[in-house]
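Researcher: Good morning. I'm working through a list of sequences from a screen, and I'd like to move beyond sequence-only analysis. For each chain I'm collecting a predicted structure so we can compare shapes side by side. This is the next one on the list. No need for commentary yet; just the structure.
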Amino acid sequence: MNEELPTFDDIKNAAVRLSGHSFKTPVLQCSTLNNLVLNGANCFIKCENFQRSGSFKFRGAFSALSNLSEIQKENGVVAFSSGNHAQAVALSGKLLGIKTTIVMPTDAPELKVKATKSYGGNIVFYDRHLEDRVAIGLKLSEEQGMTLIHPYDNRDVISGQGTAAFELISEIGHLDYLFVCVGGGGLISGSALSAKAHNPLCKVYGVEPEAGNDAQMSLRTGSIVKIPTPVTIADGAQTQYIGNLTFEIMKSTVEDIITVSDEELKSCMHFFAERMKIVVEPTGCLGLAGLLKMAKNPESGLVLDINKKIGVILSGGNVDMIRFSSMISTCIPLL
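Model: Good morning. Structure tokens for this chain:
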């Protein structure tokens, strides 16, 4: 793993590698959200659920795989993931002609397992509650000579993820606030680098599940905190700890980490479907749920008026439709 911290220049270079391969995803607004909830502030939602493989993870995976040496490409890669990074690496490998092996938990969503297989990924299953996916990935890498593509603690991955916010800001201008989901920290690290490069005063907030607040504890204590695998519907944020590289970036660029409940995520899934006509997975709703939680709290420090521009990275939309329907049918609607 390259331990050198990525820079904004790395994000711009990743954008060049991704050009013609990743989708420029849409930026949506909702007048009801702006006027009734955010006091007239303009909220811009970057829809990475429309990205290739269904999430922002394609950006980081393709960025990393396309930057490998020819020998590394020939030997193939190994990755570990609960689903979105798995799909992204498998698809990137298919596009680049690189063999991919993916270490996935036995309880990974079936939709994500099927998609990973369809992209040509060779899956190795493990028990996320009893086994260490990092150890398994490292062992496979050493035994078979494959390059390990870490889902977040990798310079090229972080740089690729940062292109989502880079695109958002290039389209709508500088932001006053940016809300980003947090699992291992790859997306928020790259997003914060992009946001701060355009506007050093932009306040970047991370959002993670209440059941898995390792990033929040890490930033507030000043050292990486490891927790048991969190029990949450946000399967993309069931990480036990953030990365070394992502932690270093987050310490200097992220304002704070907010936590939200699974019920708040369900309500946001319902809102996206009913009001904005888009399907969003639970993890993808973290950013909006965090913004709404702060907006309801007069002591949060969030300033909302017609002059403020807020960005939300909607991370992905890979969710089984039966599960999706079940979750939104029992939620409390936002509006």
